[in-house]
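Before relying on records like the one below, remember that each one covers exactly one chain. Contacts with other chains, cofactors or solvent are not represented anywhere in the record.
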Amino acid sequence: MAIATTSKENLLTFEMYQADRAGVVLVNELVKQQFGSDNYRLFKEAGKEAAKRGEKLPEISEEDRRKVDREMYDRFGERFGVEEYLRERFWRRSMSEGGIGSVNYARGILHPDQEKRASLTTDITSDDLRPSSFLETLTVPSKLAGRVYKYEQAVVLGFGYLAGELLSESESGQRTDKVLKGLNNFFTDKLFVDKKGETTDYHIYSYHKPHTNELVGLGKTKNPPEQGLWVKSLDYPVRRLRITDAEGQNRVVLALYDPREKEVGSAVIKAKERSLLDSKESSGNGVIKVTPYRNDHFGFRFVIMEGGRPMRDIVTRNLEDLLWTYKGVCDIKEKDRVKEEHGNPSRVQFRRREVFIEGLNQPVEVIIYAFEDYIASEYEVGRFDGEKGMHDGPARNLYKLQVVSNVAPYIWPYKLHHIDHIDARKLASFEYVASLGRKQRISPSPYLDYMLPIEILGEK
């Protein structure tokens, strides 16, 4: 899908993702605007001539292709403020990680069995990521390129543009990995008790209600507090944190600690889904945006292993005080999710801080979980909700499934791919329920899930 060049903000609309004549017209007009009218006409005429001759490929000189490539590298790079010598790499990275990466990420979530109809129809080689290759595919007559293939190329191009905004900061010197490294070193010096990178093994058993995986309790023994519960054996490499408690006493707490940077494909899909929800609420006007939804692109996660939510809150206060002393921090915003939301079982509680650092256009996200809430986000699947068409638990895999399934019709429209997305969501939901139920379970043995009764095997 093409984008207007009036501002840095992407102007993709959901109307462009219609697999019908109206969508094609919108895409063609914006491709012409992006690639230039002269280039558009040149490639379109070459396609028509090839069709008249009965040939499958248009004759376009390498010189003309390189001209289109250079112009698009510059236009795309200028749009996002990327220096000239980095622009070709920036284009290819955006199209690879954002374009192809978004499709592959969504397919892996919605189709864990790797539905072939949801895969790209061809293997995208590095040459296919050239701007001229996109222009060729999007301008040739339908006699020379299949409808599905042309639509997919437009989807990849559109996702690539959406990814450009996420990736532009790293290409412009605002390296998120440098920020993460700097904060990690800061925590090593000011927060962690042990030397850099050193962890302590933490083992515990968790007890769950069968099938829903709802957490009942934690303990140091394989024996659950009541019969019939599932038991999981959990191991984590944790850090020892130095904090001050509510009484002003120094103490050490254990925490699972993860620096994280979200996959570009994941961030693009989430931005598209949030834009879709905004549009349905009549505030988004059908425009697909990245900027309003990129505040969780990278950051840190702390899971407080003992002490529950009260200790989570104490650690949060310590972290916030500490982060204010980090060089360049100009603001810290509270973005907690700690209240029950109308009895919604799919929401997990946590504390969250958005840390704004001078010179960085997006904040660093710091999330703090109580261990019990973290376990729920990892395993609890809840029950099947007929209205949602999937399970209603807070497991992170189910959240990802909901996000992807909402935008799936705009990636694989039924008119072209003939995929029943409602059925696909239901099937994926049950597959996640089965896999999360087996994961780390030691009692009853997960192998029993695969064993057939003796009488079915014909044995005595």
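The chain has two domains: 12-171, 176-443.
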